[in-house]
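Exercise 7. Given the encoded structure of a 738-residue chain, write a plausible sequence.
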């Protein structure tokens, strides 16, 4: 969602598109998924179409659908599902939705990673075609996390659009347990605007995999109560020539659906017969299994059924048997119950959530034929289960889901619209002298950098900082200390920094650590350590608390800010301006934090820039850095505004932490060659205390950091022949007055 900021400062620009609609305008939503019905496979992903229709009816949204299908050259039915891919039309209309089916390359069984790339290309091409034709959209609604969701996030970021992902089942319970897809899924979750899970069980699974819980909203699938309804079951059974106890097992003929268990349970129920609705690769194997169990005469394979035919089968059945090993939110259960059929299910995915406390459903703990047969006998003996099943289904209409979607999407639209109003402009003054140097210190509590949380932290003694302060004073330097809430509220630190302020020896700003800045509670996942990921209201509340603590310490509001972990974007800039701050020092050129959920500054410029948010203006000065060819001191220009291959180039910040003097000198000369008027040297205060962070494991490391800083400042003031400035001089430097 970076607009002018990307263009002028951070390098790569999202596609130019028309502005997002104003609040209250009819939302435009682009749905993206490979799980979608088409003329060749009308039941494929029908639940996605149903949810979109419910959201449209609730919100009056204008929705279009990109539903890519794998490319295949032959349409013959002899090629099975691949032939069906080829028969899918390029364009079609279903339920008044305009749908396109672009092709993408798939290599069966070995091409999962390739599918992400080809799917991204297909989505981008089609989305750009829609925009060029005059239909721009507010956000992307993507279904199924891999490869669909991963590709949709990449496309959305290229287009500068918000994107929501929906987790639906095997994308979480199966695919996400493979190492490469899991990494891609978690990265996509970090980079998207929100995740919808169709069951609590899927949310729990995602959190266990490492996703932030606060970013996931559970919106369960509903059921079309008009389509799936109670009919004359006796008339249907007569037409289908059915008698006795009729059980139904529905779903694709694949191993995880457990049709073999449903077949085997017939041995325990000699008067029952089983209908199997679905198609798939195990059709012949299941037929042989029925023969081996001696129940072939009581098993009827119905194949894939249209929804109207499926409704009849639900009505004909005395009970639905769902013996799956994995599920998301099994829609088939609610469809059956809406038609009056009670349900016996394994405890897979959201099955227990579907049934709840309904007496017309049972969860079988042991996934065995005997356990299912016993549960079926018990359930079918209950009186009034068909009426109870329908009543339970009626509590799961689509309206609640559609309402939840509308809330999420409307918040994203408003946020995106607000960010569109944040504009930036680079400052490139004619430099008359060499660039000046500003020293900044992230003055923070000691904590576990591997997992920032509100637990197990402490404030280091100010005496450790004082040695650094006195060294800077020897060079006539006024460091700019960015103070966290624990430091501002620590009595010893507060008195020390008040004394520095009174003697006019240093400057001060704020440094929000979301995990230690009140209000606390929730949002402790590392994803939220990037303050740009905090919900707007939470971020604003924390910012207000930190500003109040600064005011209580110094008797004035803060003017300067550096984001915790450099996590800044337009929403943060707008909040800073609204809070009365005038300067930010957060962007970190050369570094890409996006895989961990943070911002991408890999193509950012080192030049200061202004941000205008309404009537307020913010001056942003990056923390100086660039990329060097690995194994060398050859730094490349950040002004080319392009991403670098991480295997070839490594980013480095102008800091005494983990660097050498020769590298600092080379980076300084690179920054001068790029015309930067101001160079920012940065470090963490915890690097001045032995054992307080990874850069300073012991006293020897602290001494080395201090010595390197002294040598660099000596180089800069003597050999290089430039000047160290304070916070109050930044305006003159950035305007070219000095």
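Solution.
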């Amino acid at each position: 969602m970076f607009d002018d900021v990307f263009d002028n400062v951070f390098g790569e620009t999202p596609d130019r598109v028309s502005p997002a609609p104003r609040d209250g305008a009819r939302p435009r939503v682009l749905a993206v998924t490979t799980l979608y019905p088409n003329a060749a496979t009308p039941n494929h992903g029908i639940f996605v179409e149903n949810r979109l229709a419910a959201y449209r009816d609730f919100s009056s949204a204008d929705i279009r659908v990109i539903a890519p299908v794998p490319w295949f050259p032959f349409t013959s039915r002899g090629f099975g599902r691949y032939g069906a891919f080829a028969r899918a039309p390029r364009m079609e209309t279903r339920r008044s939705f305009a749908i396109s089916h672009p092709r993408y390359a798939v290599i069966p069984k070995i091409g999962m990673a390739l599918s992400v790339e080809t799917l991204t290309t297909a989505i981008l091409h089609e989305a750009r075609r829609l925009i060029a034709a005059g239909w721009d959209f507010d956000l992307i609604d993507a279904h199924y996390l891999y490869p669909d969701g991963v590709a949709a996030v990449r496309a959305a970021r290229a287009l500068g659009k918000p994107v929501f992902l929906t987790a639906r089942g095997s994308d979480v319970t199966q695919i996400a347990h493979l190492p490469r897809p899991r990494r891609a899924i978690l990265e996509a979750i970090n980079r998207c605007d929100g995740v919808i899970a169709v069951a609590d069980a899927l949310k729990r699974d995602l959190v266990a995999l490492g996703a932030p819980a606060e970013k996931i909203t559970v919106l369960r699938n509903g059921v079309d109560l008009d389509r799936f309804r109670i009919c004359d079951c006796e008339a249907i059974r007569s037409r289908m020539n059915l008698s006795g106890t009729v059980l139904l097992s529905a779903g694709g003929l694949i191993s995880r659906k457990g049709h073999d268990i449903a077949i085997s349970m017939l041995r325990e129920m000699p008067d029952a017969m089983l209908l199997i609705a679905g198609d798939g690769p195990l059709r012949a194997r299941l037929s042989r299994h029925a023969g081996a169990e001696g129940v072939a005469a009581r098993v009827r394979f119905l194949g894939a059924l249209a929804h109207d035919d499926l409704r009849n089968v639900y009505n004909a059945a005395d009970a639905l048997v769902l013996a799956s090993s994995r599920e998301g939110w099994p829609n088939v259960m609610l469809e059956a119950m809406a038609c009056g059929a009670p349900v016996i299910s394994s405890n897979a995915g959201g099955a227990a959530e579907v049934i709840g406390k309904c007496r017309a459903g049972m969860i079988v703990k042991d996934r065995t034929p005997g356990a299912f047969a016993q549960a079926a006998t018990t359930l079918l003996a209950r009186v009034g289960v068909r009426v109870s099943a329908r009543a339970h289904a009626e509590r799961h209409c689509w309206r609640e889901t559609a309402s939840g979607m509308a809330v999420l999407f409307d918040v994203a639209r408003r946020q995106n619209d607000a960010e569109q109003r944040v504009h930036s402009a680079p400052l490139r003054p004619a430099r008359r002298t060499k660039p000046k140097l500003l020293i900044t210190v992230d003055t923070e509590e000691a904590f576990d950098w591997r997992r920032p949380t509100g637990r197990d932290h402490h404030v280091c003694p100010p005496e450790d900082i004082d040695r650094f302060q006195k060294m800077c004073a020897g060079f006539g330097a006024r460091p700019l200390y960015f103070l966290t809430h624990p430091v501002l509220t620590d009595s010893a630190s507060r008195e020390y920094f008040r004394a520095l302020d009174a003697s006019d020896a240093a400057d001060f700003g704020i440094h929000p650590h979301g995990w230690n800045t009140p209000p606390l509670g929730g949002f402790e996942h590392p994803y939220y350590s990037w303050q740009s990921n905090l919900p707007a209201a939470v971020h604003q509340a924390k910012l207000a608390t930190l500003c109040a603590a600064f005011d209580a310490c110094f008797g004035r509001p803060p003017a300067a800010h550096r984001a915790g972990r450099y996590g800044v974007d337009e929403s943060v800039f707008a909040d800073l301006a609204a809070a009365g701050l005038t300067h930010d020092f957060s962007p970190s050129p050369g570094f890409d934090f996006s895989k961990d959920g943070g911002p991408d500054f890999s193509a950012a410029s080192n030049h200061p820039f202004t941000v205008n948010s309404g009537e307020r203006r913010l001056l942003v000065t990056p923390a100086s850095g660039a990329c060097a060819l690995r194994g060398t001191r050859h730094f490349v220009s950040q002004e080319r505004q392009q991403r670098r291959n991480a295997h070839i180039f490594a980013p480095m910040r102008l800091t005494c932490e983990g660097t050498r003097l020769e590298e600092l000198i080379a980076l300084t000369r690179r920054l001068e060659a790029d015309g930067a008027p101001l160079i920012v040297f940065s470090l963490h205060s915890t690097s001045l205390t032995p054992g307080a962070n990874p850069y300073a494991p012991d006293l020897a490391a602290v001494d080395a950091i201090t010595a390197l800083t002294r040598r660099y400042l000596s180089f800069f003031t003597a050999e290089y022949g430039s000047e160290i400035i304070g916070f109050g001089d930044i305006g003159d430097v950035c305007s070219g007055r000095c």
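Remark. The first strand starts at residue 28 and ends at 32. Students should compare their own answers with the one above.
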